[in-house]
Structures are given as C-alpha cells and as structure tokens.
Design a protein that fits this description.
By secondary structure, the protein is an all-alpha fold. 72% of the residues lie in helices and 0% in strands. Helix 8 (192-225) runs antiparallel to helix 17 (407-427).
C-alpha cells in the first residue's frame, strides 16, 4: 500500500488512527502491530507470514541471548559470552540467509550459470517481499546491539514485533535502531500537537512525492522512451537531472511522511536527509543522503572491520567492501554494484587527495558534486548494460546511432517542464524547509498545506505515474 494512495489516505489511515487513539495506553503497541500487519498484508498477503516468522525467530534468538541458566557466576559469564556469540551467528545466518534467498539467489544463479555455461544453480523466480532489505537490517542491528550490551533488557514480544513492523518505516525506512524508540515503545503519550505537527510533516512529504517527484518523473520516462542511445548530450543531461530530482523528492518525500506518521503515533523517527544536493563533495553528499543507511554500514560493517584505524591499504579495502555491499543492498543487478563501486572510487580519491579542498570551496565543490551525482544516478537507474553504456556515452556527446532526440526536443522539454525544474531546484536548497520551520504554526501555512493535500489527492486520482522507487529494495 502506497502512502500516496486513496486507499491509505481515506481508508486505512483514518480507521487505524481512530482505533489507535482510542486504545488504552497499555494496548497501543498491540494496536500498532495489528495495524502494521494489515498495512503490509494488503500489498503482500503471503509475505506477511514471512515477516511474522522472521520476527518470531529473531525474538527467540534474542531471548536465548538474554537467557541466564542457574550456575556459578564465573561459569555463567563464560557460558553467557559463548551463548551470545552463538545467538549472534544464528541471527546473521537466518536474516542474511532469508534476504539472500529472496533477493540475491537468482542474481547469483544467473551469474554462475553464465560464467560456467551450465545450469549449476536453479533460478527460483521468487517475488521480492516489500521492505525486506529495510526490516532485515533493522533486526540485524537489534541483534548486534543485544550482543554488544547496548540493549540490556529484553522487550516483550509485542513491543519487539511492533518495533520491527511499524508501518511508517516498514517498507522504505528510515532504518531505526531499537534504542532510538525503546523508551517510547514502553511509554508514550499522544498529544494533539504531536498529531497536528505530524500531519503537517506528512502533508509536506506527500506534496514533494506527488507534486514534484511524480511530475518530474514523467520527463525522465519520456526521454528514456526515445531510446538510451539516440539522445543529444543536452537531452541526456536533462534526463539525468530529471531522474536526480525524481529519486530525491520521491525518497525524501516518503521519509518525511514516515517521520510525520511517527510523530502522530508518539515516536520520533530519525531524519534521513539533510539537503544532500547542496553538498561540496561526494563525501559530504553521503553524510546527507539516506543518513540511516550510511550510519548502519558505518557502525555495523566499516568500524567492526577496522574503519580507518589500520593503515591506508586496509582502509581502502574496508571502503571497497562497504560500497560493494551498499550497491548490492539497493538491488541485485550489476548496475547497482557498479553504482556502489563508483562511489568507492570517488570517495577513495577524495579521502586521499582533493576532498578537503573541495569542501573548502563555495563554488568548485558544488559544481563538482552537481556534475557527478546525476551521472551516478544514471548508473543506478538503468539496469540493462548496453542501454547504460549508450546513455553514458550520450552524456559526453558520443553516439553510435543517429540522434533522434535533439535540440528541438530539448527546447520543447524546457518549455513544458521549465517551471517544474525551477521549483525542483528551489526545493533541493535549505530555504523552503527553513521557511516552513519558521512559519509552520501560522494560519497561512496551514491553509497552504491544506491546498497541497487536496491538490496531491487530485493528482493521485487523475495521474498514472505514482511509483515509489525504493519499494524494489
């Protein structure tokens, strides 16, 4: 179920919020769990069973990790360390094994079969459960934090299940650690101003998703429909810029909607974006883009591998592993691996040469980032290798075929989408959100948000381009 759908806005959300607000405080986690399973089950009626099974297995593993048998203290401590280590490995095997089967088995099988020329591995063709990458990472972070002692008390099953399956962030993040919501899982108060502020934030995110991401996405789709190898360089760059705006407002809008829904429910879901397109380097871009994913890889992969503490060679290797995994996390295809490794190369070069000089420059750093980021998004967007190479060549004026979409079409696209492109440029800067934060309680902002909501509903009702790009991850 999409947040930007009539079913969610006018059926699920009003009914759920009424039940949730009327439920006694001690039953709110149960109401949240039930509502989240209904939300997930509408779109994934079979995979909701997988979610329930995964939650149950992970809870059992964490319960085993916390279990203390009656024995002398010294033996109990020794056995406790061994037991926690076994439990951690069991959780890794189960969670990553499940993710591998559903998301990476066919990719691995296809690669092995092509390399060997034989059908050594069967192709399963399993559907990808929505949000499996997000809730797998969330459960792994929980298990690792239990092992490290960051989580010192085992929550109840309902609380744990509600934490994992919480519908605002279940299928597209942000990736929330248990310690960020632990206190409010146990005791939270719902106040009218929380609901009001959350509803405002949700509406803002809905507008970014429907009125900006969906609309500029039609430009990218139009350009791609002409053929990736038939584009004038100006048209190819316009398409890359359009997709850069689409994925930004799509994911940022969804993250804001998740944060808004979280506040309505009494939680504070962490921020996932901090105006990444104003960055002065690729390093800064990744400190601002998908913040919770970057934090996850830093705390649970990069630092445990040694981070940057074991010399230049080891640091480069650690970065290579992190960015290869980051690419694969986004999708089981070679273009995602190439996308992740392109950031590895750029970040390694920045870290060892010109990175600090870029971030010190107010002009050069911005230009550098604004040129490279659209190129990386093209790699991200096009899964077909031949089309990807053709589009990248078109960006630099290299054509193998006749140019079918040239300057006349470029001028027509600018005429049709020029105002929308200008609005997108404005909204990737910090100024609109700063203005909103300053005036959000004034009557004219409330009226503006009411208009944004109903205009978004109108576009949802009449429009056909309403995907959510991160659903496939």
């Amino acid at each position: 179920m999409l947040f930007s759908s009539v079913e969610f806005l006018f059926r699920f959300l009003p009914v759920f919020m009424l039940c949730y607000l009327l439920a006694p405080a001690k039953y709110r986690n149960l109401a949240l769990l039930a509502g989240s399973l209904v939300f997930y089950g509408v779109g994934e009626p079979y995979f909701v069973l997988l979610l329930i099974f995964s939650v149950t297995v992970n809870y059992g593993i964490s319960k085993y990790m916390f279990w203390e048998p009656a024995s002398p203290q010294q033996n109990r401590l020794q056995k406790g360390k061994k037991r926690r280590r076994i439990a951690l490995w069991l959780s890794m095997f189960f969670n990553f094994g499940t993710l591998f089967v559903f998301k990476y088995w066919d990719f691995t099988a296809g690669t092995v079969n092509r390399l060997t020329g034989q059908d050594l591995m069967p192709v399963l063709r399993l559907a990808l459960p929505l949000g499996i990458s997000f809730y797998t990472f969330q459960m792994v972070s929980y298990q690792v934090d239990c092992y490290r002692g960051t989580i010192r008390e085992l929550p109840g099953f309902v609380s744990f299940a509600a934490y994992v399956s919480m519908f605002p962030q279940l299928i597209a993040g942000p990736i929330v650690r248990y310690d960020e919501v632990k206190d409010r899982m146990q005791d939270r108060k719902i106040r009218l101003r929380y609901v009001e502020n959350g509803l405002k934030l949700f509406t803002l995110g809905l507008g970014l998703k429907v009125l900006l991401a969906n609309q500029i996405g039609t430009l990218w789709n139009t350009i791609m429909s002409a053929g990736a190898g038939n584009l004038h360089a100006a048209v190819a760059w316009l398409g890359a810029i359009a997709y850069s705006f689409q994925i930004y407002f799509d994911f940022w809008g969804y993250s804001l909607m998740a944060m808004g829904l979280g506040r309505m429910l009494g939680f504070r879901i962490p921020q996932n974006f901090d105006h990444p397109y104003v960055s002065r380097s690729i390093s800064e871009f990744w400190r601002r883009w998908h913040i919770t994913l970057g934090r996850w890889f830093r705390e649970y992969v990069y630092i445990p591998m040694g981070g940057s503490r074991k010399g230049t060679g080891r640091t480069i290797w650690n970065l290579f592993v992190v960015w290869a995994l980051t690419g694969l996390w986004h999708g089981a295809d070679w273009n995602f691996v190439l996308w992740g490794l392109s950031f590895f190369v750029l970040l390694t070069i920045e870290k060892n040469s010109y990175g600090k000089r870029l971030e010190a420059s107010k002009v050069l750093g911005h230009l550098y980032t604004l040129i490279l980021i659209p190129i990386t998004w093209v790699i991200f967007a096009i899964t077909d290798g031949k089309q990807l190479m053709a589009y990248l060549a078109n960006l630099f004026g290299i054509h193998q075929n006749a140019v079918l979409v040239g300057i006349p079409q470029f001028m027509r696209y600018l005429e049709e989408y020029g105002i929308l492109l200008a609005v997108c440029v404005l909204f990737v800067t910090p100024f609109p959100i700063r203005w909103y934060d300053k005036w959000k309680d004034r009557w004219f902002v409330i009226m503006l948000l009411v208009g944004v909501f109903w205009f978004s509903v109108h576009e949802i009702m009449v429009g056909s381009n309403n995907p959510f790009l991160y659903f496939r991850f």
